[in-house]
């Protein structure tokens, strides 16, 4: 015990108490750190952690809202919801999935594809989210499941709602249909959980698609408390859902249905407008599919039959169809001539054709000496060729375009083709050549480059009839603006209207006078040469026939309604399109008379539209069934 | 100590303040376990209560042990524990799997638990035997390092990182108080800083992952970071007053894993809030302070070092668990003594408290005979 570094007992005791102080201090510091840390977590960050704890605890099962109705201009329903029965599985309560699904497959006659899908969904699902077994099951099947529920733990048979279109195919292209959201639509809505609820459907086409935001409504939520393993603990107060809004259309349900029925088996489009407001009263494309069966999801067989039909029932001809206007362009041409100083009394001698440059344009007939009104009434091409060559092609085509041909309208439809109204400037830009005499000649009778759409076919007579720059509308809601004046001399309009009245009175459509005492119709027939049809895959004789067109307004003296109609390959406008327009126009003034006229026709076609549709569906269904059940 | 004519002398001379404190903590723990079971005494609270009162009785019984008796059994106890640790290791080797306990009849013995008080007593005894002049010599250092290093290595190999760290910290605390030169403690700190990356490479996959997640818990909130994330949510959402008894959603809906064992503090904090947390931390602080007081008043060097080491053991238990639960330390699997469900932690802590009571009684009888 010697040396400088000698440590004595006293020294050791001093070191001990010094180090004890150090240790105690360190312990106190750790204690303070722990309390500080806890205070930070529970006071400063309390809000954040409370939110996280709450989102752990509460899960929201969205309750789909009921889709809004679509009603017509007087409130008649066009698209409604019907109560339907559906069967779902609650994975968490399911005890013997294999056995229960087999039982259900027997009761509901499910195909093996359905059974596979159910098992896939069960594997993928979260415990509390239902998995669809079948929707739109019949009441008998629903009842059969309900009485067996005690033996089927985890099976849920509920009443739901399914979309119903009372008019079936008549509104197919106007409204479109609804269906389950696909992966792309799900992604486009940022994986909205509503879209993957069994049975929830969104608008897929037509107004159902474009009006989706109004129609969908706000989903409610069943708030539930779940454990970390997804087991339901209790249901919390639910958040009620809000049904979608009812949307009122300008469509007249009666006329829409009548027009669709009146077209029979023909392929075509008809648009009717209110001349005072521009309201579209009918928007018909036929033939059509049944949106009711589309909304349930159609079979491959049904799809195949629809897509292979040469009348193209899957094409919305009102929005997408393009046709040469034929002679329906003539009233607008006449207005253009008047505006450029052509005297309506000036006569042109029609010898059955006219020489333009080195080409002879042949008319349908030798009309003899005709003035403007006569030329419209009897659809004399020679008059319009002659006058067309005497006027400025740019100014003339501008007038036709101004009256609606080639114009795109602001309508809530997913896509709209608006065709072409050619003019010298357009020709230069598009084909890089000068406007020639034969261009004028072709355009004057609505051939050549002229391509128009059925909506334009109604807008044109509506504008001529009203003298206003009418804009077509489909929705009742929204600002109603008084349409601007056309700015055309009323005298000129009167001349053209009189010419159009002549068409029905003694001209090309003399066979299509309204069967009414007080109301006269004015119109214009059109027969468009068919071209580019081979590329659409049409075969046989039917599709080589000309398209029949007819535009009209009535009453001729005090116009209220305008209609444009195209019947594909209908032959002459006067024989195929004009009678349909006549009956539809009759319906607007005297529905009883119009329906009476329809009855014998439908008998001849083999039943009403609804009957034929039902027959077709059952034929498809029976063809789709396997040969031996 | 209560002085009263009514209470018999042996009872009155028990350190009642400490017993009340410890019983209070354990009682609070039972309340939390009752809630963690969804408001039921099964499966945890009743069993834990029985275990606690059994070991409380053991601890009180131990308080009559003489210091000389403790000293006499220290080295044999250490040797037996070491042999058991080797036995566990051998058993694990034979059964080709991790093994932490020995099955002796109905009892399941976890020798690493005994090592915590054993290493404290052993090192205290060792430094009592070292003459004061030799304290700073190598002869006073390397045997202690072996005494500490061998069991620590065996426990690490089990593998039980939490207990290994506990044993090391307890031993180092005793060595620190014994007056070993400061460089002994500074050098390893530097060495650890250098060796940590190398050691990290040698850790087991799950241990490494725990450290990764500790350093960045948000990186894996649904995987390995789930424990820490959910624990912080439970503590943070409790706020100042807590969500109320039986109203903790994190624990009741199973979002908080291990809510009755290692993460029992989070279960408590969710329902009792910051207030409950502060009360519990202060109660533990009072127990540790009492233990440190025993050390300060001790007459012998053995008693000084042993009392401080045993108090430090309780301190390390509590602080490592709380730091782990609050996201300040990696998840190493150290329970909160007296509160977490499980017998071994209760046993270890009550052994420590029993020894502390024995040392304290010794002081009083000693002072009385002196005074």
Keywords:
A: 629 residues; alpha+beta; five-stranded mixed beta sheet; five-stranded antiparallel beta sheet; 41% helix; elongated; B: 371 residues; two-stranded antiparallel ribbon; 14 helices
Question: How would you describe the overall organization of this protein?
Answer:
The complex is a heterodimer of chains A (629) and B (371). Chain A is an alpha+beta fold. Chain A contains 24 helices and 19 strands. In chain A, strands 2, 3, 4, 5 and 10 form a five-stranded mixed β-sheet that branches. Chain A has a five-stranded antiparallel β-sheet with strand order 12-11-19-18-17. The longest helix of chain A has 36 residues. About 1% of the residues of chain A have low confidence. Chain B is mainly alpha-helical. Chain B has a domain of 134 residues. Helix content of chain B is 69%, strand content 2%. In chain B, helix 4 packs across helix 5. The mean pLDDT of chain B is 87. Classes of the chains: A alpha+beta (629), B mainly alpha (371). Chains A and B meet through helix 1 and helix 2 of A and helix 7, helix 10, helix 12 and helix 13 of B.
Q: Report the oligomer.
A: heterodimer
Q: How much of the sequence of chain A is in beta strands?
A: 15-25%
- Identify low-pLDDT runs of chain A: 532-540
Total of DSSP H or I helical runs spanning 4+ residues of chain B: 14
Shape of chain B: globular
Our measurement of the CA-to-CA distance between the termini of chain A, rounded to an integer number of angstroms, reads 109 Å
Give me the count of strands of chain B. 2
How would you characterize the largest beta sheet of chain B? 2 strands, antiparallel
User: Greatest contact pair?
Assistant: A-B, 44 and 47 residues
Individual helix count of chain A: 24
Mean pLDDT of chain B: 87
**In total, how many beta strands of chain A?**
19
Structural class of chain B: mainly alpha
Can you list the strand order of the major beta sheet of chain B? 1-2
